[in-house]
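Q: Convert this sequence to structure tokens.
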Amino acid sequence: MRDEIKRFADLDELSRAVAEDIYNEIKDSIGRKGNFTIALSGGHTPSKLYHILATDYRDLIRWDQVHIFFGDERYVPHTDTQSNFKMTEESLLDLIPIPFKNVHPIATDHPDPEKAAIEYEGELKKMFNGPDSFDVVLLGMGKEGHTASLFPNSPALDEKRRWVLPVNAPVTPSRRITLTYNIFNRSAATFLLVAGEDKCETIGNVILVDADYHTFPIKGIMPTTGRLVWYLDAAAASKIL
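A:
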């Protein structure tokens, strides 16, 4: 299936478009099967999107039918400023009427990250017991082409069985938990959000060149049956315009 590429003037316009698309996906999924599942991205780019969902769409979404998961997590307390959960909590979760049981954070209080990964995989398999996974996966991209906590040349890139792994990243904080291609690529829709001039060179390599996923891990995001949509601001898209 051919990737869809959407270009926007800036991060604000991009975030509003993604929010509208997520809202439509939520309505469709709840109408068809009674719930909606999403894996959220961390980092800086999606925080504006989350705030828009929490304000403009707060009263339009049936949050009691929405289940929120996380694509990766830094292995720090959820109160730490580096935590993906903390960013999401402040920009989205604290502002919406979602039941506590519908939010599925990755535990970071185990002494052993391996145990946390195994437990989170078990939680995912309780939710997804068929060939499909999330209704929507949100992902970003680092300037070197990583996505979630799948970094260039990481052994996690060639994992064929497990859905969740502990990894050591080449950035701080290095200890992390990440979902793998094995579950990401079973999603019904994958939205890739990329903004900033520092991403434009990599975007050119990833979209225009037959790059290898070991070099640019985002290339390994290839949904088997679902849609893949790139949302790029003008700065990130400048090499492919």
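The chain has one domain: 4-233.
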